[in-house]
Amino acid sequence: MTDVSQPNSAGTPQSSLHRLDARTKRRNAAESRFKFYGIVAILIGLLMLVTLLYTILSKGTGAFSQTFVTMQVELLESKLDKSGTRDLEKIKKVTTFGYAPLIKGAFEKSVLEHGIDTDLKTKDMAKILSKSAASQLRGYVIANPDKIGETIEFRFLANSRVDGYLKGRVSRESIANDKNITAAQLDFVDQLIAAGVLEKTFNIDFIIGADASDQRPEAAGIGVAMVGSLFMMLVVLALALPIGVAASIYLEEFAPKNWITDIIEVNISNLAAVPSIVFGILGLAVFINYMHLPQSAPLVGGLVLTLMTLPTIIISTRAALKAVPPSIRDAALGVGASKMQAVFHHVLPLAAPGILTGTIIGLAQALGETAPLLLIGMIGFIASNMPETIGEGLLSPNSAMPAQIYEWAKRADPAFYERAWGGIIILLIFLISMNTLAVILRRRFERRW
Amino acid sequence: RDQVQVAGSSTVLPYASIVAEAFGENFDFPTPVVESGGSSAGLKRFCEGVGENTIDVANASRKIKDKEIKACAEAGVTDIIEVRIGYDGIVFASDINGNGFEYTPSDWFLALSNEILVDGQMVANPNKTWADVNANFPAQALQAFIPGTKHGTREVFEDKVILAGCEATGAFDVLLASAEGDTDKAKHKAAEKACISLRTDGVSVDIDGDYTETLARIESNKDGIGVFGLAFYENNTDKLQVATMSGIVPSTESIATGEYPVSRPLYFYVKKAHIGVIPGLKEYAEFFVADEIAGPDGPLAEYGLVADPELADTQNAVADEAVLGSNM
Amino acid sequence: MYDIAKMGTDVDQNTTKISARNVQVYYGDTHAIKDVNVEIGARSVTAFIGPSGCGKSTFLRCINRMNDTIDVCRVDGDILIDGEDIYDKRVDPVQLRAKVGMVFQKPNPFPKSIYDNIAYGPRIHGLAKNKADLDEIVEKSLRRGAIWNEVKDRLHAPGTGLSGGQQQRLCIARAIATEPEVLLMDEPCSALDPIATAQVEELIDELRNQFSVVIVTHSMQQAARVSQKTAFFHLGNLVEYGDTSQIFTNPQDERTESYITGRIG
Amino acid sequence: MYDIAKMGTDVDQNTTKISARNVQVYYGDTHAIKDVNVEIGARSVTAFIGPSGCGKSTFLRCINRMNDTIDVCRVDGDILIDGEDIYDKRVDPVQLRAKVGMVFQKPNPFPKSIYDNIAYGPRIHGLAKNKADLDEIVEKSLRRGAIWNEVKDRLHAPGTGLSGGQQQRLCIARAIATEPEVLLMDEPCSALDPIATAQVEELIDELRNQFSVVIVTHSMQQAARVSQKTAFFHLGNLVEYGDTSQIFTNPQDERTESYITGRIG
Amino acid sequence: MPLSWLVLIVLALAAAGYFVGRIRVLKLAGGDVRALHSLPVYYGANVALSAAVPALGVLLLWLLIQPSLIENTVSAMIAPEMIPEGSNLNLVMADVRRVADGLYTAVETGAMNMAQVDALQASADVRATLGELGVALGQDVRPEVLAAAKSYLVASGTGNTARMVVVLALSLTGLVLSMIRTKPDYRARNVVERAVLALLMAAASLAILTTVGIVLSMLFETINFFGLHSWKDFFFGTIWAPNFRGDSELSILPLLWGTLYISFIALLVAVPIGLFAAIYLSEYAGPKTRAFAKPLLEILAGIPTIVYGLFALLTVGPMLINLFGQTGALGVNWMSGATSVLTAGVVMGIMLIPFVSSLSDDIINAVPQAMRDGSLGLGATQSETIRQVVIPAALPGIVGAILLAASRAIGETMIVVMGAGAIAKFSLNPFESMTTITTRIVSQLTGDGDFSSPETLVAFALGLTLFVLTLGLNVLALYIVRKYREQYE
Ligand SMILES: Nc1ncnc2c1ncn2[C@@H]1O[C@H](COP(=O)(O)OP(=O)(O)OP(=O)(O)O)[C@@H](O)[C@H]1O
Ligand SMILES: Nc1ncnc2c1ncn2[C@@H]1O[C@H](COP(=O)(O)OP(=O)(O)OP(=O)(O)O)[C@@H](O)[C@H]1O
Ligand SMILES: [Mg+2]
Ligand SMILES: [Mg+2]
Ligand SMILES: O=P([O-])([O-])[O-]
């Protein structure tokens, strides 16, 4: 038979598979184009990510190093304890302003010791130091009153202009109108560098320290805010996870399908869309004004963020529960487990990785949130000490990392700007670690059954 | 609670934070907590009531309003101590490498107002460049970054610059003549309102953020002129050059003497009921206005606060715990 | 292999274990089971056969009230086990299901160890006084599930790591562990290969010494091999019920005949 | 009904349409198809039977290279259609699949209207010049799919709203609409009720006048009813291939016999 | 007894009940678990719940009701003529409460005893005494206030004692009753499970509670706002121009327009990029690429929005000017300022990419393989399959993802503040500055205006309106998803 060569229908004339017809070629081209769009889309996304990360890194790494001046300071008894009784109350009477002569003295000594030739007055020399130097000295003296009269080596922060000079942010041209620093002072700085008195090193205080006022950018650190964020995250984790999981279990496993569950469902997805500032309004009204919880406290921040994160956790937990195959539920029911037992013994453990992923994403979102904190008093100048107990950590005033970054970004001294970006780097390290954890969990537990 | 709790104006915040920090260093009291969030939000929380769970001090970049005093009283906050700490200078600055300007209020009115007076008629503002506004100026495109309507600075800008310019150019009289209203007062108000209505074609850009944002705008648009606080300008002299107003260079001195016209007073308010209850509250208030802090040589002035020539009166008032309305 | 003639030798199949009276099942508006009456004997294997969608699974799931978990499902009529109505208000379905075990079409071991798979039921029903007791129950169940030898060395390996046939026998062992009186099996071999199927069938044949086994199958060969009684369902009706040998050799109903001879289904 | 004797009357079945030579299929390390050689005739129905997991579906999917979509799947050996190697580099699987249509086990209409379901293939292959042309193709395909009468009044209703049997016939009509030369069917009736099955079988019987049909089935009755040739697979091997009548009445291989008589599978 | 002690005792009773219940039932069953209806833990839990739940419930109610009861009795003591000029009963009562609170603290800390409190005279400096204890009083205490405060204190003292007795009694009764009921055939599991179910239900209702809280926390100020400002202007006006002098025009429409426009542009960026990325990841990419690209893209969603704001201001704005500005590369002079709807929209779009891509990727993956097989089997190319079969099938889910992204866009603040400017106006030109509802909420709330002026209160009206709008959007989304869901199942 010659069946094979005969056209068997009107539409497709018998053709060799080994030759592409024009239409197929066209369709294949469309195919490649389509795939190309996909690659381009991903590349755009990744490019944006890289640009953002590059911007952040290039602007923020400077915050991790700082310029220090190392000097011998004589703790003059004549200035600090005129009576000589070492009575702490009397020593405390000397305010930080009273410590200025000590610093001037230290400069005098340094200049002599290193044979630096300068016309600068000691008062102007002292200006290259941070304003925190005096309080650093005072703090030391109050802690060690017996050291009065001795000469101790101190490492002082240089002020932000000097630090900027070492980091290339400040130049001799740029300070033309700057009343905070003069060219002569920069010359002096150069001499100090040559003498090895002044150097730029890694600055751990940025990571563990507390905020400083607008005049002392060099002394500001994000550590306490980090602890504030940590406590808020603890609250969120402790509340949002159990409540979110409980709500999801009810909705997914037990709730009858009726209008009440519909209302709850719409509510939850709507809460996910409520601008975060509105949660701040809610927090102020309910937790502070009505329940009288303390202001600026991480506890309140955590509660507000809990309400904000709940929808995220509920939505992803429900998805995780839904993904557990019904056969597992049947199996449990089949051996006589109650529905509650089936859920708690089998479904929940299987959904755990999904739930954790959702929780981590929710936490990450909460970690970066600023607006609601504005209304419950966690933005501003909150230079608390590190909390010592958990209770104190929850209840004593504190800031949070994004709030601190936001606050720094607004301040006048450009040195704060660098710190804001540095803070963003730390925040991002947290976020990326959390994301990585989520990915690892997802990968580790994905479809084990 | 053992620390003083302060909230309010973001303009006062830097000064308050400098004081709070020094206070914490030199006293045995813990460092006060100073929140930002705006004068209005601060006063609102101030007027929430008395007690540990309310704030002790509200910072404000304006005087408390009568309505607010009333709302305070309704919530039991009756004895309020008003403390004026100094003045905030408001300056006009542009990119350091661009043209310098010497303004008068009229220039700003002619640059930004919605309608200006041309040949006795109010017409839609036709000016495109500074040269159109004033022949002495270079032909640089008009672009102004002014505080958004939420900022107190905006009110000062409108009052002391635009309105002054409106009157100086004669536009005010024309507007008053044609203003609608039953009473003189209403007419006056309508004319003022017309004066300060600014053009919306993108020449004048409201900045709702902070001065950092204004600075960033100028950096990305070199033609822009921005409105800044004096303190902010002084910390960024490497990027900005300041313009004079009516021939006066803004500085803490020229503002303190009143030569430079554009400035506003800064305040904080203390709840008398909390004095003696919250440890360190009175000490904080006194420390804030002490000469070594708020005086012309103190750190606040160094940072850019215009010291109050009548600081001594304020110090006495704080020491006496004189409350609002007591001298009326 | 399995001989149909063997059936007659059984003792107990005349004692009624389960009896259904006028059972109707609705899924929302669909009438899935129409007026079924049937008496299922103790210690015997009963097969439900019929074309796809005829309601075999539905009826099977009525017997241990697994249908309760389907929102839209509604059951009318009575089902008595040992003379007690299982749809009575006083009956706790959880307790019922401990008494009426179930094995599903697709093997569904818990993603836990083999030991825990078996121990789960006894644990939640408090069947073991102590660990030793539990160990004993586990071993006994695995032995009765004819899988002990294959898994005794890896009781703490995951149950999901077994082959399909092993998994299904594990599931049967799991169902036996709670000491049920009735064992329901919904197409237990449809996911298995021939060798695994043979093993499970052998097991079923042993189980009927102790349990009343009801098995749904789409394979007439299988029904013929393992069951003593067969019920033929068609479009929700129980068309014919009787001794397996009789159903396959001499069906009374025309529809049964068409089905058996391969003209429908 | 379908008569096995009918087979001999067909004309074309000796013309080879598809021939497979030493085909091996691997899923990763699993050797799923072992050295299969087979010649499938034009205009006839060929049935693949065998126990579950023996590789029927795998081999079927080799014929239109649907296996390409499975990452781990690797095919060795040659498959020729009309003498051309379909695994040749120059062959575009897209073109191939237009020529070799496929119907799946579970009816899978697109979530579109009935009309669009059918028109989908002709549209992407540009088979219709205009709307009227397309309408005609749709009507013709639905007629050949023996479902026209049931759906002609609701062509724009969703295809997913049909009953299972209707859906499966819709899928067949959809496959025919692109004018393929070979039609592969993987257990097309396993999800259907008996009535729907009968309709589909009737349809297959008609289709063989134009197409070369290859059908996988788990039901030997079905194979006997619809096919002219039967291939029996076991554990990845093609054990026996020959005329259906011969395979069912006089199998050569022992394994085939065990399967047919119900001792395995 | 302080409240915390009471709670602790009840909890301790519950804990004890748990163990006793367990032991008792095992004993009754002769140590044989098999003789029990439920596992022993359930009997224990049942006793614990009976001891704790009713008692704590009553305690909670008590805490809510007692103050208002006492308030009523005490306020009867204050005769109308005792209320000073310009004040009202509420204010006086607030004073009474504060003084009573102070006295309570004094007694509690041991600074005074009840006798001393009784002896306290208004003439004595009550304010100073209490101040030392850390209790702030607004003004000196008047005699009638002190008297009322004392009776307030006494009443609440009595109330507290009664509370303690009742709560403990309830707890013990619950304990004993449930112990009596504890018999081997008692259905302890069913009871406990019902209680757990109630807990789960309560957790789910928290969402509703939050909603109610949000609405309530904004409702009163919104009503105040509408008392000061015409609702017609707010909803139907066309100008947004807050003004310190008062008498501002505050209409939501230009803000709504800005919100929608910016969100629209954001979606215009995010949806195609996100969708194509999702398609590539789920349909083309190998598992390795997917495992690597997906989490990387998700980082975009985690970057704090303030960073995006700065990115808009410093990078994207100037870049757009370089393209569309006067001296730009295109030479079109369409754009004069770096802040525009386009700037904010583009940056926001970048932030939203992962919302669309990750969710859509999951959804596309969930489309049954049978759909793809059906199409491929007809000789469709992969892209044809995706465009004509997979995407339509996944559409409801994709719409859901887009709606989520839209919600985020509507609620976003920082990017708009820094990228779009602060001008409220109606314009179609994407190169102009505009602003959104959310940013106006923040700026009116944190601004310098009088806090009881309409210019500040408008924030609450805006917030509530936005809330209602998004609620509507979500109802719509639910409806769409319901309507099209499971079409392919
Ligand atoms: N959950 C459900 N909701 C609605 N209808 C259902 C449901 N489960 C089954 N049905 C319908 O009830 C009828 C009987 O279904 P059932 O599953 O009992 O059949 P079956 O005999 O077990 O079929 P198969 O051999 O395919 O398993 C069918 O028409 C089916 O469509
Ligand atoms: N995607 C896959 N990946 C790995 N192994 C597979 C895959 N698909 C099938 N297999 C294996 O290949 C072998 C043959 O499978 P195939 O699906 O071809 O069997 P079948 O004869 O069609 O069985 P059934 O009657 O159950 O459909 C089986 O062992 C199966 O487990
Ligand atoms: Mg079934
Ligand atoms: Mg198959
Ligand atoms: O924060 P301010 O009130 O000063 O603008």
Automatic annotation (TrEMBL), chain A:
<dbReference type="InterPro" id="IPR000515">
    <property type="entry name" value="MetI-like"/>
</dbReference>
<feature type="transmembrane region" description="Helical">
    <location>
        <begin position="271"/>
        <end position="293"/>
    </location>
</feature>
<protein>
    <recommendedName>
        <fullName>Phosphate transport system permease protein PstA</fullName>
    </recommendedName>
</protein>
<dbReference type="GO" id="GO:0005886">
    <property type="term" value="C:plasma membrane"/>
</dbReference>
<feature type="transmembrane region" description="Helical">
    <location>
        <begin position="299"/>
        <end position="321"/>
    </location>
</feature>
<keyword id="KW-0472">Membrane</keyword>
<feature type="compositionally biased region" description="Polar residues">
    <location>
        <begin position="1"/>
        <end position="17"/>
    </location>
</feature>
<keyword id="KW-1133">Transmembrane helix</keyword>
<feature type="transmembrane region" description="Helical">
    <location>
        <begin position="342"/>
        <end position="364"/>
    </location>
</feature>
<keyword id="KW-1003">Cell membrane</keyword>
<feature type="region of interest" description="Disordered">
    <location>
        <begin position="1"/>
        <end position="22"/>
    </location>
</feature>
<feature type="transmembrane region" description="Helical">
    <location>
        <begin position="36"/>
        <end position="57"/>
    </location>
</feature>
<dbReference type="InterPro" id="IPR005672">
    <property type="entry name" value="Phosphate_PstA"/>
</dbReference>
<dbReference type="Pfam" id="PF00528">
    <property type="entry name" value="BPD_transp_1"/>
</dbReference>
<keyword id="KW-0813">Transport</keyword>
Automatic annotation (TrEMBL), chains C, D:
<dbReference type="Pfam" id="PF00005">
    <property type="entry name" value="ABC_tran"/>
</dbReference>
<keyword id="KW-0067">ATP-binding</keyword>
<dbReference type="InterPro" id="IPR027417">
    <property type="entry name" value="P-loop_NTPase"/>
</dbReference>
<keyword id="KW-0592">Phosphate transport</keyword>
<keyword id="KW-1278">Translocase</keyword>
<keyword id="KW-0472">Membrane</keyword>
<dbReference type="InterPro" id="IPR017871">
    <property type="entry name" value="ABC_transporter-like_CS"/>
</dbReference>
<dbReference type="InterPro" id="IPR003439">
    <property type="entry name" value="ABC_transporter-like_ATP-bd"/>
</dbReference>
<dbReference type="GO" id="GO:0005315">
    <property type="term" value="F:phosphate transmembrane transporter activity"/>
</dbReference>
<keyword id="KW-0813">Transport</keyword>
<dbReference type="InterPro" id="IPR005670">
    <property type="entry name" value="PstB-like"/>
</dbReference>
<comment type="function">
    <text>Part of the ABC transporter complex PstSACB involved in phosphate import. Responsible for energy coupling to the transport system.</text>
</comment>
<keyword id="KW-0378">Hydrolase</keyword>
<keyword id="KW-1003">Cell membrane</keyword>
<dbReference type="GO" id="GO:0035435">
    <property type="term" value="P:phosphate ion transmembrane transport"/>
</dbReference>
Automatic annotation (TrEMBL), chain E:
<comment type="similarity">
    <text>Belongs to the binding-protein-dependent transport system permease family. CysTW subfamily.</text>
</comment>
<protein>
    <recommendedName>
        <fullName>Phosphate transport system permease protein</fullName>
    </recommendedName>
</protein>
<keyword id="KW-0813">Transport</keyword>
<dbReference type="GO" id="GO:0005886">
    <property type="term" value="C:plasma membrane"/>
</dbReference>
<comment type="function">
    <text>Part of the binding-protein-dependent transport system for phosphate; probably responsible for the translocation of the substrate across the membrane.</text>
</comment>
<feature type="transmembrane region" description="Helical">
    <location>
        <begin position="41"/>
        <end position="65"/>
    </location>
</feature>
<dbReference type="Pfam" id="PF12501">
    <property type="entry name" value="DUF3708"/>
</dbReference>
<keyword id="KW-0997">Cell inner membrane</keyword>
<dbReference type="InterPro" id="IPR000515">
    <property type="entry name" value="MetI-like"/>
</dbReference>
<dbReference type="InterPro" id="IPR035906">
    <property type="entry name" value="MetI-like_sf"/>
</dbReference>
<dbReference type="InterPro" id="IPR011864">
    <property type="entry name" value="Phosphate_PstC"/>
</dbReference>
<feature type="transmembrane region" description="Helical">
    <location>
        <begin position="389"/>
        <end position="410"/>
    </location>
</feature>
<keyword id="KW-0472">Membrane</keyword>
<feature type="domain" description="ABC transmembrane type-1">
    <location>
        <begin position="256"/>
        <end position="477"/>
    </location>
</feature>
<feature type="transmembrane region" description="Helical">
    <location>
        <begin position="260"/>
        <end position="281"/>
    </location>
</feature>
